[in-house]
Design goal:
This protein folds into 2 domains: 233 residues, Aldolase class I (TIM Barrel, Alpha-Beta Barrel), CATH 3.20.20.70; 48 residues, no CATH class. The strands form 2 sheets. It has an 8-stranded parallel barrel with strand order 3-4-6-7-8-9-10-11, surrounded by 5 helices. Strands 1-2 form a two-stranded antiparallel sheet. Helix 7 packs parallel to helix 8 and helix 10 crosses helix 12. The protein contains 16 helices and 11 strands. By secondary structure, it is α/β, with parallel strands linked by helices. It is globular, with a radius of gyration of 19 Å. The structure holds flavin mononucleotide (FMN).
């Protein structure tokens, strides 16, 4: 039985925290296709402490379970406050972001800049662990750069401080999202951890899910960018029936429309998804141009008429 703390899972597939992407409709779609756990987008602890509506709007929808609320920040008490807030809101798991390399986040000392400061990282973990009673996980990189690799130290601290699972995106912060992810690093991680390990990075097909689960000592696979263009990798891996391309696109759009209740806003937000969905089709560039002009649901239906599948 797959477990993180007291939370049980039917399969090893998790949808990743993706800022600007993993909103409620995206998570619902991933859950429909079969992931057993979804993550919120990263949420600012400072925003929660300041009662910032934007941060609170990132929150999950009641009844959406299991869900992990991912928090970023650098101040232990503020992260602990936000963690308590999401526990009260009904989150099943709290995750702390130690991996975001984006300048806006790291220049405040959060995300991967927090992982660079091992003493503060420990203080954050200890403070948050004491503040909540639901499972706690952390999501890390290998380190800031190869000379400052510290994921093993982070893992030891995490397990020692009562963290319930360790998620690793095996790239250095300086790589951002480019270059290779070093999955072989999981072989060094496994011997020092008894808590579950979540592997994240570059999994784009159901065959890659099986390969990585067999080849590397990870308990869960986290799917990020691969899901944005291809949610079928989940159902293919689980050997489940799934709706075809156009039905999937429309399902995603309609979930967004139900949630945001504003056709122009949804159409604008959907532009980034349509480009991914049509990737690989013979007239993808024409479809991308049309996708970038979406302003209403009818535009999407017109675009469908140009898709040959
Ligand atoms: C657009 C985008 C947004 C992301 N946002 C977050 C985030 O909010 N929190 C986080 O921990 N990681 C975030 N990540 C990293 C992913 O969760 C994941 O670890 C990484 O993209 C590698 O996996 P992939 O190759 O399957 O995408 C983001 C990545 C992308 C591309």
């Amino acid at each position: 039985m797959l477990k993180i703390g007291s939370v049980c899972f039917s399969n090893p597939l998790i949808s990743a925290p993706l800022a600007g992407i993993s909103d409620f409709p995206f998570r619902e779609l991933a859950r429909y296709f079969g992931v057993s756990l979804t993550y919120s987008e990263m949420i600012s602890s400072a925003g929660i402490c300041a009662e910032n509506d934007k941060s609170k709007n990132f929150t999950f929808v009641k009844g959406e379970h299991p869900i992990s609320a991912q928090i970023f920040g650098r101040d232990p008490d503020m992260i602990a406050y936000a963690a308590q807030y999401f526990e009260d809101q009904g989150a099943d798991i709290i995750d702390i972001n130690f991996g975001c390399p984006v300048k806006k986040v790291s220049k405040q000392g959060s995300g991967s800049a927090l992982q660079r400061d091992i003493n503060r990282s420990k203080e954050v973990i200890t403070t948050v662990r004491k503040a909540i009673s639901i499972p706690l996980t952390i999501k890390c990189r290998l380190g800031w750069n190869p000379a400052e690799e510290n994921y093993l130290e982070m893992a030891r601290i995490a397990e020692g401080e009562g963290v319930d699972a360790f998620c690793l995106h095996p790239r250095y912060a300086v790589q951002m999202f480019k270059g290779v992810s070093y999955w072989s690093k999981f072989h060094d991680l496994k011997p020092i951890l008894s808590i579950p390990i979540i592997g994240s990075g570059d999994i784009k097909t159901s065959e890659e899910i099986s390969f990585h689960l067999n080849e590397y000592p990870v308990d869960f696979i986290m799917l990020g960018r691969g899901l944005m263009s291809n949610p079928w990798i989940i159902s293919d891996y689980l050997k489940k029936e799934h709706p075809p391309l156009l039905e999937t696109i429309l399902m995603h759009y309609d979930l967004m429309l139900q949630y945001f209740d504003n056709e122009l806003l949804v159409s604008t937000r959907f532009r980034k998804f349509i480009g991914k969905y049509v990737k690989g089709l013979s007239n993808a560039s024409e479809l991308r141009v049309l996708g970038n002009e979406l302003t209403c649901r009818d535009d999407l239906l017109e675009l469908f008429a140009k898709i040959n599948v």
